[in-house]
Amino acid sequence: MGEKLTVGLAGVIIIVMLPCLLTLAINGRHQAISVDMINSGRDVLIYIDGENVLMDVEQYIVGILPGVVDYGATQEFIEAQAVAVRTKIYFAMGENTVVEESTLSFEYFDENKYMNKYGMENYQAIQDAFEQAVINTAGQIIK
Length: 143
Prior knowledge:
Blueprint: H1 2-27, E1 43-48, E2 51-56, H2 57-64, H3 75-93, E3 98-100, H4 111-118, H5 120-137
Parallel strand pairs: 1-3
Antiparallel strand pairs: 1-2
């Protein structure tokens, strides 16, 4: 009786796990993308901690969204703002692939500015929402 129960339980586990294993085998392991992995081929030259730094436009947008979007905005609104900001940056660049931050009208928020604006307890969730908005709209501009 115990052996039948063990075999039956093993069969149920295999039946439940089989679709997951097949999906994993067919699609491969899903790798999450981060803003740091995006390369738009366009950079912003910004001055951080006493030195000039070239930063990809996508990463730069994450740092300026706190000055553009209020706390509590919907994800769709944040994404729309990311597209609008990217459009403004690309327009300022023209045919160039680099633009100086001083020619743009945005304030860049580093980690400390993020924490000062939103507080330690809200900082990470808000930054994650901004990063996701940039990832979801990467490269999109208004024509």
